């Protein structure tokens, strides 16, 4: 029992010691909390004092500004002249009375005039949906809309003119000659707003564009274009008959959205890949202003790199120069409407484009005789873009990267420039018209007349083809092409010819082989040969050695 009581007492003492330690810990924590609360209260008081002080400073500054404003607004009162000093011997002079000046009446500031609208908005007629000429309300609304549209058009034309002036002043120097933008400048894209809406909606709904191309940088777009196999605006998806916007046109639209700098644009047009270069040319045609078309695309007209731009439509190969010529000569690219070129500028471009067929033939001919231009001082003649020839001499410098080969010449004025080998000749006395390396060939006027004659002939109907397209239109529904406008007889004739061709082909494939037919023909000629009876009679009458015949019955 004594041991048990001792253990209980020891246990109680240990519990009491634990309780005492907990009480001490709680007391220390309460003291720490009180200290933190005191510091927090002091910080709050300090913040309040700072806020009050800042507010007082703001009020003082505002009052000072208000006083300054009032002092400027009040007129300066005229003070009376001081009275002369008294001659009395009194030490303290009598104070002079001050004259009270009546305060000037402050006039209230004039109220600002309310803005007067230039033209009140005319509501639409509530009686008619279509404009009726006999209705006064309809005619008032029509005149209002007409005036409004004219003002909007004038404002738009003025903005375009300002943009043209800024653009021309930016890339023209003091002498009036064209210069290039700096590498970091972003050339304006006024034609980007005219991007076809139908194609834009299809691009924005395309999964490949939204998942890959829409977040791509210029370097990524180059990799995508390098893997392209067509310059068409549409391509057929894998395992599907539907036509979707091609990666080529999606990449061009993405570059237009990024607004490339001049350096990035030049890197596209100077790339080794023909697909990347064509994307750069398409960027210029869809976005850049028409005034810069010739400066940016004229050099590419002599590009002789061969490729097939539209394998799905026409499997014909062409050079990159011919591709660029089509961009400049036509207003439609596949099924995409290109920005319109003004009539005066279109005539100037067409007058220059007619020369490039002859330039390309001379380019191919000069490639075989490049050793003529190795030496310096060779007398040559060079042609400009307008078909005008000028004498010059070579400097012995050639630039032959494999395409767009040029030769450096020195003109009569002393200026040196690189000229394409398609625009240079070494004149000779015995040169004929066929030798374009020594002859100028056809003149610019002859080529222009020939081009205009071809245009007139193509505009005139011949036979029953009253339309340039002969009334045929191809419509694609679900990826399947339907041809509309073809006569039923023509379709039946084509179907019959196709059936006959397929029947003959089937007979050839399913019938006996050629060897078997040859053996049968040999046997037939040997045992089934026909004998000419008239010839036999004459021979028997002359010669008695003919075969005898025996009739039975």
Chain-wise SSE layout:
Layout lengths: L1 H72 L62 H35 L26 H9 L1 H5 L6 H9 L7 E3 L6 E3 L1 H12 L3 H8 L4 H14 L5 H5 L8 E2 L10 E2 H10 L2 E2 L2 E2 L5 H11 L2 H12 L8 E8 L5 E11 L6 E6 L4 E5 L3 E2 L18 H16 L13 E5 L2 E5 L3 H23 L3 H14 L5 H10 L11
Antiparallel strand pairs: 1-2, 3-4, 5-6, 7-8, 7-11, 8-9, 9-10, 12-13
Helix pairs in contact: 5-6, 6-8, 7-8, 8-10
List keywords for this structure.
single chain; about 550 residues; alpha+beta; five-stranded antiparallel sheet; 13 strands; about 10% strand
What does this structure look like?
The structure is a single chain. This protein has 553 residues and is α+β, with helices and mostly antiparallel strands. It contains 16 helices and 13 strands. It has helices spanning 2-73, 136-170, 197-205, 207-211, 218-226, 247-258, 262-269, 274-287, 293-297, 320-329, 343-353, 356-367, 444-459, 488-510, 514-527, 533-542, and strands at residues 234-236, 243-245, 306-307, 318-319, 332-333, 336-337, 376-383, 389-399, 406-411, 416-420, 424-425, 473-477, 480-484. The strands form five sheets. The protein has a five-stranded antiparallel β-sheet. A two-stranded antiparallel sheet has the order 1-2. The protein has a two-stranded antiparallel ribbon with strand order 3-4. Helix 7 (262-269) packs across helix 8 (274-287). 15% of the residues are buried.
Give a quick rundown of the structure.
With 553 residues, the protein is an alpha+beta fold. Helix content is 48%, strand content 10%.
